[in-house]
């Protein structure tokens, strides 16, 4: 009887990333309990956006913790997507995951930096700070949902491909909701400068992720 070689994909590295995200959330919950509870209730209440937008600081401890958790969660999902669709054996999966985290971190931080520069040049710092806060808050919240769904891709016995398409559908719906919510909150301003808003969406909200996709699929 001929033996059949069995390939098993190790999830040890992914488990480390998952534990890091959980640790970041635990620290945020411990150090900023009231803010964290308001943030978690974002889906049912806009209290967090109303109260905290006036005191938004990018380098505030809670914002740094949630942004880091966001970057790790999204990078984890991108890696799982790559692993799901590639036919190659990911012998250097650690290097690939590190490259994804580095590239996504660079894009997120670069986007925020460019937005702050634009705000300073056109003297719209207050408007841009409010926009960045709203957008980043929604994205951080969605990243937690992505993180929870990614756990199923890592550990569950549910067929990965149907689950992946379900997750993609939920993410697209969530992103459309973010766009709708931000436009609704700033409709008066956007209606005056709709051309520049569309230009901004294409240049800073869509193009960077196209570049990230090209980099990952190429290398």
From TrEMBL:
TM region(s), chain numbering: 13-32, 58-84, 96-114, 138-158, 164-183, 195-216
Asked whether the keyword Iron-sulfur is assigned, the reply is no
Q: Which UniProt keywords apply?
A: Membrane, Transmembrane, Transmembrane helix
Q: InterPro entries from the xrefs?
A: DUF4271
**Name the UniProt record assigns to this protein:** DUF4271 domain-containing protein
């Amino acid at each position: 009887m001929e033996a059949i070689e069995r390939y098993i994909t190790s999830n040890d590295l992914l488990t480390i990333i998952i534990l890091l995200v959980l640790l970041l959330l635990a620290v945020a919950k411990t150090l900023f309990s009231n803010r964290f509870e308001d943030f978690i209730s974002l889906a049912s209440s806009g209290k967090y956006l109303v109260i905290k937008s006036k005191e938004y600081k990018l380098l505030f401890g809670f914002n740094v913790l949630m942004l880091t958790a966001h970057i790790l969660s999204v990078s984890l999902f991108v890696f799982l997507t790559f692993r799901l669709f590639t036919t190659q054996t990911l012998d250097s999966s650690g290097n690939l995951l590190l490259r994804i985290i580095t590239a996504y971190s660079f894009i997120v931080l670069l986007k925020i930096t460019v937005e702050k520069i634009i705000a300073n040049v056109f003297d719209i710092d207050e408007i841009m700070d409010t926009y960045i806060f709203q957008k980043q808050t929604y994205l951080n919240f969605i990243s937690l949902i992505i993180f929870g769904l990614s756990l199923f891709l890592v550990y569950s016995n549910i067929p990965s491909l149907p689950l992946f398409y379900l997750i993609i559908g939920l993410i697209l719906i969530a992103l459309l909701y973010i766009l709708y919510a931000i436009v609704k909150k700033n409709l008066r301003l956007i209606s005056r400068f709709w051309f520049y808003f569309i230009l901004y969406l294409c240049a800073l909200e869509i193009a960077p992720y196209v570049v990230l996709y090209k980099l990952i699929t190429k290398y």
